[in-house]
Design goal:
The protein contains six helices and eight strands; from the N terminus they run E-E-H-H-H-H-E-E-E-H-E-H-E-E. The chain is α+β, with helices and mostly antiparallel strands. The longest helix has 16 residues.
Length: about 170
Amino acid sequence: MVNLVGDKVILRALEPGDLDILYNTENKIDLWYVSDTVTPFSKHILKQYIDESHRDIYDAKQLRLAICLPDNAVIGFIDLFDFNAQHRRAGIGLVIVNELNRSKGYAKDALKVLINYSFSFLQLHQLYCDITEDNNDSLNLFKSVGFNEIGVKKDWVYTNGTYKSVLMFQIINA
């Protein structure tokens, strides 16, 4: 896969050197509720994941890319998941790992690049995402690139002793 270049970031395939940042990201307990994770990941399992990340999205049904600055420093990850070739849709998610790199336009740039790739190269008809009702940064981000709210999953996520509703969003390739 060639790199996908935006104005501020580059999206690239996972590399063996990404193991430590992937390990630290996947094992951030405060992010587990987003991905329904309940146990830590070992470096061994994540190394296998990276080793298999070359698989085609049509086979693996997912694609994870590193979000990099022009100097190749990895600042986060962006995913297509639940890829469905028949219905030409996929879920999308992203994380900017270090809070110091947030609110700088990196996530928006990465999202725009992946939307363009999804619609122009993969020929997807739609992308969707689920965002907890209290995640204002993500709500504003996805709205800013054209995602529309389409529904609510009441009390969908249980975390830190409380339920959170999840807002469902989608963008359609017109």
